[in-house]
Amino acid sequence: MKPLFEFFIKLCILSVILWGVIFAGLNHVSVDYHSVFLAWIMVVTNTVAGYLLFDYALDKESAVFTKFVFGGLTLRLLMLMVLVAVVIIRNFAVVNDFVFSFFAFYCIYVIVEILGYQKKNKQKKKLHETGKRHTA
Questions:
Q1: Torsion region of 124: left, alpha or beta (phi above 0 gives left; psi -120 to 50 gives alpha)
Q2: Most C-beta atoms within 10 A of its C-beta, which of 24, 42, 73, 74?
Q3: How many domains does one find in the chain?
Q4: Stretch 102-114: mean pLDDT, rounded?
């Protein structure tokens, strides 16, 4: 299975499980689901953008890879900071629910993003080693 497809499948499965836990576990607690959903959308979009940048830059030369991955990380974090500030200042969400959800989702999804990077690197290394054997 291709790593990009596998990454999206894992992302979908994780999201379904997380939302199941959120709805089941927070059933008796007053939670603003709009705030939680807004935080989730922001974090998932960030994770997908990060993986796509990594996937694009992986086969490029080292300088280009570094610019795309680390520059992309910087831009994504700045965009997230601006979006969080706008959500809080404009009162688009309940602040406590939004901030707690945002950090929880970010911590979970950054792990998924890193695992996706590792899987992609392993596949590239394996493909490279297989190519060397066939040419030798």
A1: alpha
A2: 42
A3: 1
A4: 93
